[in-house]
Amino acid sequence: MAFNSHRDFFEVLEKEGELARVKKEVDWDGEAGAIGRKTYESQGPAILFEKVKDYPEGYRISNGTTGTWSRVALSMEMAKKTSVREIYKEYEKRVDIKIPPKILKKSDAPCKENIMLGDEVDLHQFPMPLIHEGDGGRYVGTWDVVINKDPETNWQNWGMYRFMAHTKNWLTGWPQTTSQFAFIMNKSYLPYNKPMPVAIVLGADPLSHIIATAGIKPYENEAENVGGLRGQAVELVQCETSDLMVPAHAEIVIEGEVMPDQIAPDGPFGEYPGYRSGTMCAGVAVKVKAVTYRSKPIVTMIALGTPPDDSSIAASLTAAVAMKKGLIRHGVPVTDVYVPPEGVTHLIVIGVTKGGTETTRKVLDYFTLRRIMTNKHIVVDADVDVFNMAEVLHCFATRCHPGRGILYEWYEGRSNSLTPFYNPEERRKLKGCSVAFDSTWPPEWEKEIVPIKSSFKTIFGKEMVDKVNNNWDSYGIKL
Amino acid sequence: MKEWQTFLRRFSDIQEGKRELFIKDLTAGKAKYATKHVIGTVAKSKTGLEDPDTLWLRGESGERAREPWYISIEQTLEEDWVPGKPYEDVLEAVGKSEKERGLR
């Protein structure tokens, strides 16, 4: 039985020892963020802050619901100890299954238990956290699902973008200029000076949030992918002020319009690469028209920063599987792709059956073709377990030729301006550079000159490996 | 005396005199960090300012300047925004608006 809501998932997290309920009063102004950050950095539990300063009993903040691989496994109804490789495999299998959403009547949707409309809207009635000291504002949208719609095709796009409270009824945010959100806005609203309806959803079921981080292709409705991933239709309900459809069991839905001719400051914010860098005052402004919410609402937070956290873990999964499919379509003989959370989607590991310069060039071409969120790509041979970073590092150190094995490419207008090492001018112009490290043996080398990896499994014959394995207990060596 | 904060690309971008600014209210409570769009006189020293409030400056990475400035708010603007297209630079748009108001 799939989880319908954020709250359903908490029950399982609690049973599995993966949830801490903080009953002591905690300040939304920095303290909740600091606790969340410290907990991430120790790979601690998900947190539910049950008493938040300045707010009534029942108004809560959560952090880190899928911030570890164990919790991602639980969200997919797999065993807590499932390996990363198995989680990837299962996600890859399920993500292309499409199950259309089920539409609920408004009266049946828990997210409509309370409604603020028009002049009643006051975002300050919700415990929106100031996550990091020095952030540009209270980021209510971090672990969110942001929905906008292409009016020509009815494609409803789901993404995950940051949004902060500007005033009691305005939000500002920064969906990247290369995002599908911006694609729809630039195509169908800005040229006609039309406000664009948007819904910012907090506290949906866990897989809706994970899918919001995924690079699902344009014109595909993520709600159908969530259904496939859950094995059960996701339940949606129509917004009060637009025809956008939102997860019916969400904690809070903020409905508004992105203004085509009005702007206000967003940022800076401690972002997913693990830094607060100079991306600010260049986003969008949203006039909030309604807020619908469950009684005793939960504001979902991710105290973003250095990995791991929900963002780096979810993106590791969703980005890697999308990249693997894309690389295969691009003609790269891929075995597997791993996006190590520590590399915050800047560093990608690609296993290939046939390496060399030609393959590595193809890999770099694929990653620099359109919008570019990654910048370092390590291409390894099939004998390397891409999920084992010790093996990957050994391979990179020993097989990548510093003179011949490093390919790079500059570009402008499509880089990721959150990349910390870009200077202000590069960030402004979206100018960047990507590199691929060919850490494979040249395919033209004769077999006799390819160095043999000196590991237990590779430098001894099968007979010796079997003999040692079979006799292991008798040697008296405990491993 | 109330406390406010404002964000700049560089601390050196701010100049004394009458300015248009987005400022965030640092008064404790539910509405802390709410933004106001104001016209006010800003200065490094409160001397000579009428009914001054403290104005903390933060740079584009969120770093706070060691010493505060001061602001005497003369007008709270009705609009919570400045004219501009999504993704245009808000600080440049504010600069343009200041020019149109004759503040620069």
Description:
The complex is a heterodimer of chains A (479) and B (104). Chain A has 479 residues and is α+β, with helices and mostly antiparallel strands. In chain A, 27% of the residues lie in helices and 23% in strands. Chain A has helices spanning 6-15, 31-41, 69-75, 84-94, 180-188, 206-212, 222-230, 310-329, 357-368, 389-399, 424-429, 456-459, 462-475; strands at residues 19-22, 46-49, 60-63, 102-103, 114-117, 138-141, 144-149, 156-159, 163-167, 170-173, 196-202, 235-238, 245-247, 252-258, 262-263, 284-293, 298-301, 334-338, 347-352, 376-381, 406-411, 432-439. In chain A, the strands form four sheets. In chain A, strands 5, 6, 7, 8, 9, 10, 11, 14 and 16 form a nine-stranded antiparallel sheet that branches. The longest helix of chain A is centred in the last third of the chain and has 20 residues, at 310-329. Chain B is mostly beta strands and 104 residues long. Chain B has one domain (3-97). The N and C termini of chain B lie far apart (27 Å). The interface between A and B is large, with 43 and 32 residues.
Q: Helices and strands of chain B, in N-to-C order?
A: EEEEEEH
Number of E strands of chain B: 6
Please identify the structural class of chain A as seen in this structure: alpha+beta
Residue runs with pLDDT of under 50 for 5 or more positions of chain A = none
Q: Give Rg of chain B in angstroms.
A: 13 Å
Brief descriptors of the model:
heterodimer, A: alpha+beta, 9-stranded antiparallel beta sheet, 5-stranded mixed beta sheet, 13 helices, 22 strands, B: 104 residues, mainly beta, 5-stranded mixed barrel
Topology summary:
The complex is a heterodimer of chains A (about 475) and B (about 100).
Chain A: H1 6-15, E1 19-22, H2 31-41, E2 46-49, E3 60-63, H3 69-75, H4 84-94, E4 102-103, E5 114-117, E6 138-141, E7 144-149, E8 156-159, E9 163-167, E10 170-173, H5 180-188, E11 196-202, H6 206-212, H7 222-230, E12 235-238, E13 245-247, E14 252-258, E15 262-263, E16 284-293, E17 298-301, H8 310-329, E18 334-338, E19 347-352, H9 357-368, E20 376-381, H10 389-399, E21 406-411, H11 424-429, E22 432-439, H12 456-459, H13 462-475
Parallel strand pairs in A: 1-2, 3-17, 4-12, 19-20, 20-22
Antiparallel strand pairs in A: 2-3, 5-16, 6-9, 7-8, 7-11, 9-10, 10-16, 11-14, 12-13, 14-16, 18-19, 21-22
Chain B: E1 3-7, E2 17-25, E3 35-43, E4 53-58, E5 69-76, E6 82-83, H1 90-100
Parallel strand pairs in B: 1-4
Antiparallel strand pairs in B: 1-2, 2-3, 3-5, 4-5
